[in-house]
TrEMBL record:
SUPFAM superfamilies: P-loop containing nucleoside triphosphate hydrolases, TPR-like
Organism: Buteo japonicus
A GO term from the CC aspect: ciliary inversin compartment
Organism ancestry: Eukaryota, Metazoa, Chordata, Craniata, Vertebrata
Residues in Nephrocystin-3 alpha-beta domain copies: 252-408
InterPro entries assigned: NPHP3-like_N, NPHP3_ab_dom, NPHP3_hel, P-loop_NTPase, TPR-like_helical_dom_sf, TPR_NPHP3, TPR_rpt
Annotated protein name in UniProt: Nephrocystin-3
UniProt domain Nephrocystin 3 helical: residue ranges: 631-790
Domain of life according to the entry: Eukaryota
Subcellular localization(s) per the UniProt record: Cell projection, Cilium
UniProt entry keywords in alphabetical sequence: Cell projection, Cilium, Coiled coil, Repeat, TPR repeat, Wnt signaling pathway
Coiled-coil blocks: 66-160
Length: 1175
């Protein structure tokens, strides 16, 4: 209280003495400040304590929250795992329910089918009997009238005294002759000459007859030409057949008919006339069938220095022609021996021998002809006359060989006639593949790409990568695609192709679909064509014939559906492999199905360049290819050097090892190219100098540049160097490559011998390769090197070379030579040049657009029109106007038929675009022209009716469509007979129409009938695979069996047996099945399950031959082995029991038959028995 009073009374401060006041006042103020400071300090301490307690409380609460979150995370993780497990279980349950649903539907349809069939058969029999009775009554009346007329004539003749021949005196057996109407089917076929029982199948699930060797659990045993083969162990035979076996003749080298001519100076006139006058004609013949034609001839001065080139040309030639007169120079003997005496593939060979009266050929000529004739290695033409007649005789013989032996077109026509095929040249152009448009060139290009990648002998230590790929296939679903990454030239394509071969060998049930993407902006990199090709492969392996949309957006939606449809029926895994997927244009957009959930048995593997891989894909499981180690580098270089008999010193090997350590010099392509460069120098050059030049190349592109310059230095003249540059530049600026015949037309000064030497050198050094008959760069680095070496100046140089190609293909169009090449190249070149006006004009060339559309290049055609700036409606109007103008110039039946084809193509194109109202007019016009120019009952009229009906189906005008389909069916039956594949196509179309109208009973009857037709046609002639392919595969397998007794060889013999069986060659099949059984008994022992397989298949064969006693004995032996070796509920054991029971039924051993089925009832569930009986 005092301090406050003092502060409030200023009078007191004034009475304090000065001395005392000066001492006392500061002391009081100091005490006051200390007191205030202590209070503040206490407050701070209290605040600190309070904050500390709050912090502790906050920390404890947050720790508790963190602990709670951890527990929740663990709980969610467990829940996530449980849900994933449930998801997998649900997927399996879904697949199981789906199969049960299909089985239930199948049982329902079969019951409905039996009832409908009974009613139908009863009505049919009534109608047939009525018709038969009326017909016979009419025939009797006609015969009675004829008899009365003949008796009257006889009486008149006898009255005139004319002697009449008495039929009773004749010993002729004419009355016993069976006459079969033309086109009618013989009773021999109706009764089943092969002894197969009638099939009761449909597309849902068919009851198969009990004939043939045991087959695999796959989609093949449900549908397709093999539906009459029972299922069990034969997956290997079909899988090996359906994978990558080439579909083209071995006498063709990459889609080219190559004619190699060997001649002497005496026969040079015939060669000149043949090349000048007749080679263009043969070229047109081959062009019409989609092949190239190339004549290779070396003049006498070029014979010696080009020995390797000539040998290579002989090896890849389709036909070798030797022209002789009186003498045979010794320098040609080696070529003659190589071509005619060492001909392991039995390719066609021709000898032209011009003779003269009074002059005898030399001993060497006579000996060679006698030796070749003795070995039956060639056709010999002995000609006496002038050189003009001789050249024409060569031409006629060569044309016949090309058509019959190389392309097989005339033989196909003969086979078609033998099979009762009356379509001849009037049949529609498309194969019996529904309305699907298939490009054989794209397919062949893929097969060649696979073969080129897999033909390499080096393995590069791939075993560790194979294990990872195998783990992917075995891993449980769902699993994202596997990314195989690596640098340029690291061996990704080689790895995938080698692994595909291993999978086909060890997992024959696996279905592998592959696609190798080539150069960017080439056809193989177009996403729509890739998806279409893979979808068609799925359709092929499911044996379904169904319309396929060509709209890129819809195709992208349908592909996963087809994948799911096949995966639900395929017993093994389905593996999709796309190599260099990052080269596809807008890969992430067009390959978005990769990130969608795939069926459980589908696996996807894609390879990418590690530098250009899309960012979103980098999260996928990745298999990265490591750089080559020193051991692999050494083995690669040694292999190349050993092939050329070149030996390196240890010092040189050490230098190479040190050089190949960087990332760009230790990849597979660089090392391979380095080895080839050293081997090419060989023992003639300075290897050390070459090594120094190579060591300066630090990447593959620079090493390719060194290789190219060394090839240029080996050329003799500046002219040849200029031609080499021109050739490489033209190939580089083209869309898909350039053929040899096109190069020779582009550069007339380029002879076949010089071109052959160029290609040989560039092919040997991995610069160029063949693809579907076209020369193209083997690797992207080679293409990049040519661009840097020759076209570094920029767009003007590239534009000039493209303009040269434009002029060449434009001239072809002006000469009415619209081939698949001009349709592929010319619009693309205009697109790259940015010349919209010329592109528009080119697209309005109806034959160019027709060629693109018929080969399925729908998306490419649309992209061109989009570049021009036209929408769908205006595009349709312009096409229709162009056709109207073209129609004014058409005269004659042939041109009108061609016009009808153009109208039909336009209608189909507009239908695929969804312009249904505009599609009707061209299809109707096509129908009118064909009815007028041909005949209302001509098969091509049926084709028009079929296409028009398809438009009405999409338009939901089912009544109009049904009427048109029935008309097409009637015409096809009258033209081809009731069992032709084209009839099956109309039945399929009608069945689909009825199904859309919910008329399931009628649809199922038609599908059943259609399937029986396709099955029989496939068995006789071969459908998608074809018996020609079966024969080819059988020969390939037969070559593999020449060796020691091994289980693999025994299995191969077993496969040979079934392949020959499928060709109805039962004697050969029996031989191979017996050899397989004997080998298995020697190697594996008589009680091994594989022996039971051979016994079972031999029994099936004897059953087919109606040797029931032998079949019974073998079935019982197989059953005894399988009872002891397999589980009681094993499918193989069940099938053997089933086969034996059916055999007993055939042999009328009813009691034993019932006992055997009693065994089935004791060991298997009713559903399993039902499945066995149906299968």
């Amino acid at each position: 209280a005092e301090p406050s009073g003092a502060e409030g009374s200023p009078a007191q401060a004034e009475v304090v003495p000065e001395g005392a006041g000066g001492f006392a006042a500061p002391s009081r103020y100091l005490l006051l400040s200390k007191s205030t400071a202590s209070v503040q300090e206490l407050e701070c301490v209290a605040e600190y304590e309070r904050l500390k307690k709050e912090y502790e409380i906050f920390r404890v609460s947050k720790n508790n929250e963190v602990a709670s979150m951890v527990k929740k995370e663990a709980k969610l993780d467990r829940e996530n795992k449980r849900l994933r497990a449930e998801l997998q279980a649900l997927q399996k349950t879904y697949q199981k329910i789906l199969r049960e649903k299909e089985s239930a539907l199948e049982a329902k349809y079969q019951a409905m089918e039996r009832a409908a069939t009974f009613e139908h058969d009863r009505d049919k029999v009534k109608r047939q009997f009525k018709i038969f009775r009326e017909t016979k009554e009419n025939e009797i009346q006609d015969l009675l009238r004829a008899k009365r007329e003949l008796e009257a004539k006889l009486q008149r003749l006898q009255a005139q005294g004319i002697h009449v021949f008495d039929p009773e005196e004749s010993d002729s057996d004419d009355n016993c002759t069976d006459v079969t109407a033309t086109g009618a089917q013989s009773e021999y076929w109706n009764g089943g000459a092969l002894g197969s029982e009638p099939s009761m199948g449909s597309m849902m699930q068919l009851q198969q007859s009990f004939r043939g060797p045991e087959f695999a659990h796959s989609s093949i045993d449900v549908e397709g030409p093999f539906a009459n083969i029972n299922r069990d162990d034969w997956d290997a035979a079909v899988a090996s057949l359906l994978q990558v076996t080439p579909l083209f003749s071995h006498s063709l080298w990459s889609n080219t008919v190559r004619c190699f001519i060997v001649s002497t100076d005496e026969t040079q006139p015939e060669v000149d006339i043949f090349i000048r006058n007749y080679s263009p004609k043969l070229q047109r013949v081959c062009e019409t069938m989609g092949y190239f034609f190339q004549v290779v001839h070396f003049s006498a001065e070029n014979e010696r220095p080009l020995k390797d080139v000539r040998k290579w040309e002989i090896e890849k030639s389709s036909l070798v022609i030797l022209l002789l007169h009186l003498t045979l120079p010794s320098c040609l003997l080696e070529d003659c021996e190589e071509a005619f005496l060492r001909n392991p593939e039995e390719k066609p060979r021709l000898i032209y021998h011009r003779k003269e009266d009074g002059r005898v050929s030399s001993v060497s000529v006579q000996q060679l002809i006698e030796q070749i004739s003795y070995m039956n290695k060639a056709k010999v033409i002995d000609h006496i006359g002038g050189v003009e007649e001789g050249a024409y005789e060569i031409y006629t013989c060569v044309e016949k060989i090309i058509k019959q032996d190389i392309l097989g077109c005339e033989m196909t026509e003969l086979e078609g006639k033998d099979l009762g095929n009356k379509q001849e040249s009037t049949a529609p152009e498309e194969e019996v593949f529904g309305d699907v448009l298939w490009d054989a060139h794209d397919e062949q290009e893929q097969m060649e790409a696979f073969q080129q990648a897999s033909n390499s002998t080096c393995e590069l230590g791939f075993e560790k990568y194979f294990e990872r790929l195998n783990d992917l296939v075995a891993a449980p679903a769902p699993i994202p695609p596997l990314l195989v990454s690596g640098g340029p030239g690291s061996g990704k394509s080689l790895l995938l192709s080698k692994w595909i071969q291993l999978q086909q060998k060890h997992s024959p049930n696996a279905l592998i679909l592959y696609h190798f993407v080539g150069r960017p902006m080439s056809t193989s990199s177009e996403s729509a064509l890739i998806i279409k090709r893979l979808t068609l492969k799925l359709m092929q392996h499911s044996w379904l014939v169904s319309p396929l949309t060509l709209d890129p957006a819809k195709l992208l939606e349908e592909f996963p559906r087809w994948l799911e449809k096949l995966s639900a029926r395929h017993q093994g895994s389905i593996i999709i492999i796309i190599d260099s997927i990052d080269q596809i244009q807008q890969a992430e957009k067009h390959m978005k199905w990769l990130i969608d959930p795939l069926p459980v048995n589908v696996r996807v593997i894609v390879s990418v360049n590690v530098e250009t891989c899309p960012q979103a894909w980098r999260l996928w499981p990745t298999l990265h290819l490591d750089p080559l180690n020193s051991k692999d580098v050494k083995s690669l270089i040694s292999a190349e050097c050993n092939s050329a008999n070149v030996k390196l010193t240890k010092e040189q090997e050490k230098k190479l090892e040190r050089h190949c350590r960087s990332a760009t010099t230790c990849n597979a392509l660089y090392v391979t190219l380095l080895g080839k460069t050293i081997a090419c120098v060989g023992n003639t050059g300075n290897i050390d100098e070459t090594l120094q030049q190579c060591f300066q190349c630090q990447d593959t592109v620079s090493l390719y540049r060194l290789v190219l310059r060394s090839i240029q230095e080996s050329l003799q003249s500046d002219k040849e160097k200029g031609l080499l540059k021109e050739m490489l530049c033209v190939i580089g600026v083209s869309h898909n490559g350039v053929s040899e015949s096109e190069l020779m037309e582009l550069y007339p000064e380029l002879s076949s011998a010089v071109l052959a030497s160029f290609v040989h050198s560039l092919h040997k050094m991995c610069l160029l390769t063949y693809g579907c008959g076209l020369l193209k760069f083997q690797h992207l680095q080679a293409w990049e090197m040519v661009r840097l070496e020759y076209m570094e100046e920029g767009a003007n140089v590239i534009s000039a070379y493209r303009q040269k190609l434009v002029e060449y293909f434009t001239i072809q169009l002006s000469r009415d030579r619209v081939t698949w090449r001009s349709a592929d190249e010319l619009p693309w070149l205009f697109q790259q040049q940015g010349d919209k006006q010329k592109l528009h004009k080119c697209l309005l060339n109806l034959f160019v657009s027709q060629n693109l559309y018929k080969r399925g290049h729908f998306a490419e055609l649309l992209s061109y029109w989009q570049l021009v700036g036209k929408d769908k409606s205006s595009m349709a109007a312009e096409y229709f106007d162009s056709l109207k103008e073209y129609e004014k110039s058409c005269e004659g039946e042939e041109s009108m038929i061609c016009l009808a084809d153009l109208y039909e193509t336009l209608g189909r194109f507009l239908k695929d675009l969804g312009l249904l109202s505009q599609a009707v007019a061209p299809l109707q016009r096509s129908l009118e022209i064909r009815e007028t120019a041909l005949d209302p009952d001509h098969p091509r009229v049926a084709q028009s009716l079929h296409q028009l009906a398809g438009v009405y189906v999409q338009w939901k005008k089912f009544g109009n469509a049904e009427q048109l389909y029935k008309q097409a069916l009637e015409i096809s039956e009258n033209a081809y007979g009731a069992e032709h594949p084209w009839v099956a196509r109309e039945l399929d179309a009608l069945a689909t129409l009825y199904q859309k109208q919910n008329k399931y009973e009628q649809a199922e009857q038609l599908r059943k009938k259609s399937f029986k037709i396709r099955q029989k046609a496939a068995r006789q002639k071969g459908s998608l695979c074809g018996f020609a392919l079966l024969r080819q595969r059988a020969l390939q397998l037969e070559e593999l069996t020449l060796g020691k007794d091994t289980p693999d060889n025994a299995r191969t013999l077993n496969e040979l047996g079934v392949l020959y069986y499928l060709q109805n060659n039962l004697e050969t099949a029996e031989l191979f099945l017996k050899r397989s059984l004997e080998m298995r008994e020697r190697v594996l022992g008589p009680d091994h399950p594989d022996c039971a397989q051979s016994l079972n298949n031999l029994a099936a064969l004897y059953n087919e031959k109606k040797h029931y006693d032998k079949a019974e004995e073998l079935y019982e032996k197989a059953l005894d082995i399988r009872r002891r070796a397999l589980a009681p509920d094993h499918p193989s054991l069940a099938y053997t029991v089933k086969h034996l029971a059916v055999l007993y039924k055939k042999m009328s051993k009813r009691t034993i038959y019932e006992n055997v089925f009693g065994v089935l009832h004791a060991q298997y569930s009713p559903r399993r028995i039902s499945h066995l009986v149906k299968s």
